[in-house]
Please model this.
Amino acid sequence: MTVWEAILLGIIQGIFMFFPVSSTSHLALTQHWLISRGSEIPSPDSPEMIFFDLIVHVGTLVSMAVVFRKSLREFIGHLAAGVRSRFAETESGYERLYLKLAAYGLLSVAATGLIGFPLKAAFETIFASPLVMSGTLTVTGILLWWTDVLSRRPIGLRKINTRVALAIGVGQGLALMPGLSRSGTTIAFALFAGLKRRWAAEYSFFIAFPTILGASALQGLEVARAPEPMTLHWAPILVGFVVAAIVGVFALYLVLKLLYRARFRYFSFYVWALALVVAWSAHRGIL
Model:
């Protein structure tokens, strides 16, 4: 992989990680296109290319840490205070809330793992199948349209329960499938479960931290244990990481404005058009 290819893939990840149109599918489709143009990058369904995809996903976690720095700092501070108070048996209702939210977040991540880990190999085969990816992109468009026509959601942070946490975790687990947007699917499932738009977005992005870091660690172990040496050099991997982090900051600010104003359906038209282009290109043998 050249540095310029890494920059291109980093830009795509930075933009589409937060635009609810599936960054994974855009990465895989771009990789298919680069290979068709003579690039020597590994196949999109190879362990090392999936590892690269996860590393640029980690780059966009940096974007989230920047944009949500105030909420993240508040959450960590109150969570630490809640843990200390728990042992001292002096916790306040506010600290109890953050402990509960942390527990529900872990429950969501566990639900994601229960779905994603057994189906990991099946999901990864979709990286090599643009035609199947066009179908999952179509489903993403339907979910995005649906989120905008939902009535006002009643559940705030204090009313999050096991049902809501499990629903979001299931959505995130299904979104490990290329073509299903992680942010779009988890936000959609959160809204379906009744969570208000602002908290649906923040909850979705917060559980991305343990989910993506855990998936990256597992994929890194798989690459390290592979009998063949890794052909990707660390320089383009690092470049992709940095570019995704920088671009992701601007993309996330824009997406949050659109979400709060219930404008996700605009992305539906893009996703459906992309699905048609991908299906046509796969049928013609272009991808």
Q: What stands out?
A: The mean pLDDT is 82.
